[in-house]
Structures are given as C-alpha cells and as structure tokens.
Design goal:
heterodimer; A: 203 residues; mainly alpha; B: 319 residues; Arp2/3 complex 21 kDa subunit ARPC3; two-stranded antiparallel ribbon; 73% helix
Chain lengths: 203, 319
C-alpha cells in the first residue's frame, strides 16, 4: 500500500516547503485562530485569507486536484453537524458562519500537513518544550503507523482469501480478531524496538 | 465526534484547552512515575495501533459502517494514564496530518475522546469488573465501560457545542446522545471481541484479576481524585448549565476575567443564545435522559450476555 497517503506532498520541493517548519506552524495556527475569532462581517479579512491560502497553494506546487479532493473528503463532517444548527432562530447565519470558517481552517491545515514533514513539526514541538514522553510517543507512532497499516492490510487480505464472511456476525468476529492480533503484534514489536533502542544506547 | 474548527467559541475552546492540558499533565506525570522504561515504545506502537484500528470499518445495517474509537480498549489494555497520552497522540496526528478535528477544538476533542473516553471508561471498568470473577468479568466490564464512556463523551460534546451557541442544547443533546447510545453498542461489542481475542493469544496482556497495571497504589488514589475532579469540572462547565437551572458558570468566569472576546462571541452566536425554547424541547431532552437510564440497564444486561457467550465457562472458572 502507499506509505504516504497521509501527507503525500509534504516532501516536495517548493518555496513553501523550504520555509522553516516553525514559521509555517505559527502562521497556520494564527490563521486558524484569527479565522475562528474574527466576526464573519469582516469580509475584508476573509477575502485576504482566501487569497493568501490560494497563493500559498499555488506556490507549493501541490496538485489542486489533490487539495480539492482532500477538502471534499473532510467536508461531510463539517456539514453533518452544521446542518443541525439550522434548527434554531437565525440558524441560517450560524450555518453559513460555521461552514465558511471551518472550510477555511480545514484548507489551512491540509496545506500545513502537505508542506511540512511531520518529523520537522515534531522538532518544533521538542524545541517548544512539549514533554519528551509525548514527543517520543508521536515520533514512534508516525514511524510505525504505516508498518501497522500494512500489517492490517496483509491480515485482511489473508482473511479474505481464506474465509467468507456470510453474515455480519462473522465479519465482526474476524475483524475484531484482526484488531486483537494487531495489538498483540504491536506490543511484541514494541518489545523488540525496546531491545533495539537499548542496544543502541538509549536510556 | 471530532469537532472541526469554527464550531466552538473562544470561551468554550479556552476552557476545554485548559481542562485537557491539566488532564494530560496529570496523565503524563502518572505515566512518567509509574511507566517502566521498557514500556515507553509501547506507547508509540499503541498509538499507531489505535490509529490503524480506527481505519477498519465494521459493516452495520445497509451500506453503512462504523469503526472503533478505542479509548476504553486502550485504557483496559494499557492503564488510564497511558491511555490518555496515547489517545492524545492519535488526536494530534489526526488533527495535524489529516485535518480531522480542528486546531482550536483540539482541547475539546482531547477532553472528550482522550480524557473522558479513557478515564470514564476506566473508572466504570474498574467498578464493574469487581462484580464477576475472571475473564468473564473483564469482558463484561470493558463492554459496559466502552458504552458508558462513549455516551458521556457525546453528551459532553453536545454541551460544548450548545455552550458555543453553535447548536441549541435541545437539538444537540438528543441528537448526540441518541446517536451515540447506538454507536456505543457497536463500540462495546468490538471492545469485548478484541479483548477476548487478545486474551486468547496473550492472556498476560489482559489482566483478568489484580490491580490496575500502570497506576501504583498511592499514585492511583491521587490520580483517581485528580481525574475525578477534572471530569466533574468538565461536566459541570459544559453540561450542567443545560441539564439544570444553575447559572452559567463559564459565562460568569469569562466575564470576570474577560477572556471571552465579546465581539467574537456575538458574531459566532448570532444572537445571545438563551431564547431558543422550541415547543416540545423539554420533553425531548427528558425523553433522551430517560432513554439513557433505560439504555444503561439494557446495555449492562447485553454486556453480561455477550461476555457469557464469548468466554467459555471453563476458562472463566480457571481464572
């Protein structure tokens, strides 16, 4: 399976990608916070943000098709809750506010994720004095995420080639066994990783 | 249940962020003091495991499907403190790599899914496990705890949305609670099945009897009190203003300290929110609450039957 489905474009080479991760993180966070806080009547701000994001997207040389697809993939989560907000007085305005703001924030985060390698974000966190345990957990998680997803894919393929899941009950049982097996393998792998870390002088 | 950006106003986002930072701090401290060095890599692998497990879709009626959230599962397998850290890592990666869940809502998402999911789940698990011996009790308690934590997290999430003025409580509470009472059943069944599968392969990973594995005795009580206080404060802030007629504590605090940007609040909320009493509102909330009470009893019974069905008598008696 593709190992980079999460942040496929984060290792491209472009002016945006070459910027330091700390700057990008800071800019992205300020854009998100400002977008959430600034009233929707500040039309000038929103025009500014849209053109800024469009400019960044163009400069980053990421395929617009991919960005749009990612955005459309995430939009249902926004719309689902936003639709409920229509059931109240002045619901239309709340709905519009939410959808505009959420979409802008989503786009900002999609751009950040696809212009910044995760390892660099972790280095920023480390410098920002985020507790070492959390940073280590995140680093190991990112490293082994793709390994475990590959493992799940293999187990699913093996299962599919051997058994039929005629009923949902069967499907649930086998899927749960896959998850259980995945946990067992993950914890065994963790033991091997610990041995390897110790062998290399980790304390 | 991932809240995107733009759904929470400044005061709710800030309050949730403070609460989840406190919870994460306590969990981190607990993990640092009691987690043996050899289990540090397991934290990262467990986070990757939860992320990968969330990507497996379980078929539900029709073409729809659901997936595991895994907070209670992680709490049962790793202990509460470690589970909070692991789920937080999962949420951080989902937020920063997937744009799933907003940055400004990160505090709320961590509080609902990592902290309530793990700690509420673990507390229910710890209590219910005492009722029945052996693996049978473990499976029953885990399934029941998974349901409870899902519902409590959903109700808290509804409270946050209502407090932000995004949704009226009369819509948010029944919608979130009712849907998650059903989703919680799926979560409970998957959690039970996975625990049985793990216990079958590596019984020592699921401790059927004995003390919680990560928390030490003294630390455990300290942690228990701190965690309990934290969740109580969270529920008091986000849910209590709607559930009973107490004054809105958070609004008071916000005004006293002035951390709520008045302009922002008014713009997001539209109108100051109190007046959205639609006819039949009170009854919908009451019906949901009643359904919750009945659901709890029914789910406990289901969890008992599920555990009976999944755990062979012989292995239950051996433990």
């Amino acid at each position: 399976m593709r190992r980079d489905f999460l942040d496929r474009y984060s290792r491209l080479d472009s002016p945006v990608h070459r910027l330091s991760a700390a700057v990008k993180l800071l800019v992205a966070l300020s854009v998100v916070v400002a977008t959430v806080v600034i009233p929707i009547f500040g039309v000038a701000y929103f025009i500014l943000v849209v053109s800024f994001l469009a400019g960044v997207a163009a400069a980053s040389r990421i395929s617009p098709h991919f960005l749009l697809k990612r955005l459309l993939f995430l939009e249902p989560f926004v719309l689902g809750v936003a639709l409920l907000s229509l059931i109240q007085p002045s619901g239309g305005r709340v709905f519009a506010t939410i959808v505009v703001k959420s979409t802008l924030c989503l786009f900002t985060m999609v751009l950040l994720a696809n212009t910044t390698p995760f390892a660099e974000l972790l280095r920023v966190l480390q410098r920002a004095r985020v507790p070492a345990l959390l940073v280590t957990t995140l680093a190991l998680m990112y490293r082994y995420l793709f390994v475990l997803i590959d493992e799940v894919e293999r187990m699913k393929r093996a299962r599919a080639s051997r058994t039929f899941a005629r009923t949902h009950v069967h499907a649930w049982k086998t899927l749960a066994t896959v998850i259980g097996q995945l946990f067992v393998r993950a914890s065994e792998r963790a033991e091997r990783i610990y041995a390897a870390m110790c062998a290399r002088g980790w304390k | 249940m991932h809240i995107p950006d733009g759904f929470l106003d400044a005061k709710t986002a800030a309050a949730s962020a403070v609460l989840s930072a406190a919870g994460l701090g306590v969990a981190m401290r607990q993990a640092r003091m009691t987690l043996p060095a050899r289990r540090v890599p397991l934290m990262g692998l467990a986070a990757a495991f939860v992320f990968a497990a969330q990507m497996l879709n379980f078929p539900v009626v029709g073409g729809t499907s659901g997936h595991l959230v895994g907070a209670t599962l992680a709490a049962v397998l790793l202990g509460p403190g470690a589970s909070v850290v692991v789920l937080t890592a999962v949420l951080l990666v989902q937020c920063f790599l997937f744009a799933d869940g907003g940055v400004t809502a990160l505090g709320a998402n961590i509080f609902n899914m990592a902290i309530i999911g793990s700690l509420c789940g673990y507390a229910v698990y710890g209590g219910a496990r005492r009722l029945f011996a052996g693996l049978h009790g473990t499976v029953l308690a885990a399934a029941f705890a998974a349901w409870c934590s899902t519902v409590v997290a959903a109700v808290n999430c509804a409270g946050q949305l209502a407090l932000s003025g995004t949704l009226p409580w009369s819509v948010a509470f029944p919608a979130m609670a009712n849907v998650h009472m059903l989703i919680g059943v799926g979560e409970a069944i998957i959690t039970a099945l996975v625990i049985v599968a793990v216990a079958h392969e590596r019984p020592e990973l699921v401790e059927a009897n004995g003390a919680p594995r990560v928390a030490g005795v003294g630390e455990g009580w300290g942690g228990f009190v701190l965690y309990g206080a934290l969740i109580a404060v969270g529920l008091a802030l986000f849910v209590a203003p709607f559930a009973c007629s107490w004054p809105d504590g958070l609004d008071k605090v916000a005004e006293t300290f002035g951390f709520a940007h008045r302009a922002a609040r008014e713009s997001v909320v539209g109108a100051p929110m109190p007046e959205y009493r639609v006819p039949g509102v009170g009854s919908a909330s009451a019906a949901t609450a009643l359904a919750g009470v009945i659901g709890t009893v029914v789910v406990f019974g289901l969890a008992f039957l599920l555990a009976r069905a999944l755990v062979p008598k012989s292995s239950s008696e051996q433990d």
